Amino acid sequence: MNELGVPPADGWGTANMVSEAWEGASPRLLLIESQGRVATDAGFRRDAVTQVLTGQSALLFLVQDGVVLAVPGSDSDLDRFQEQGGVLAADSFSLAQHGLDTAALRPELRVVGMDVVAGWILDPAVRVVWH
Amino acid sequence: MARQIPHTDVLVTLMGAPHASDQVTTALRLTQALLERGATVQVWTCGYATLITQRPLGADKPRNLTDWNRDYPSLVTLAEELLTAYPDRLYWYGCRFCSDDRGAVDHLPQVVLRPPAGYAANVAAADKTLLLGVI
Fold first, then answer.
1. What is the dihedral of CA A80, A100, B68, B73, to 10 degrees?
2. What is the least distance, in Å, from the CA of A109 to any CA of chain B?
């Protein structure tokens, strides 16, 4: 179990606390999910679960049609990803474009702009995979 | 003599049809965000993504029938604005085979068409490579 898989003494805490834990890890994975809720595309999310189960520090960023997965209960693989310590983030622009900017979103999900993602990508400790 | 590819922090490889999804918009937003952080970036287009830097696309998209007086910049305009704003830190390449195969022969002057096999040199010149979409 990686460091993100072990809840802190006071519980999971806020989304920012979890994100900070991811940002402090080295190396770490940035997984970018641009596909929506299509069963045939679930392999990428299952891989994300495997990554956290095998001790990787992983953040999955939802963008484009992928932001529909930010809705609670939308995808069991992402439920498991979060339960196992994976960090979830979503693109603010895509959320607004899909009419989800005022919707109730998954607990612990962090809403960020592309500027934040650019900063992650430029970090030498971060490996990026785009789906 | 083989072209020397300038080193960049990131290579954004953009594949697939421009309007099949929001992918091009996402790629352009990311490219802009990287440049605004001071990074050097190269974009490589493949497949139908080579179409987006064609000058015949014009400055604007066709008029919106429900919003007649509003201007919508074309994809080539968005690419040109980025290339103009960051002439020393943004490089744009296109796959010559894909471009020729689709009749895209009139690109922005900043666009360098390269043979498919040349892609390896672009990857080697970047610290990180992102692959967006499929052909």
1. -50
2. 20
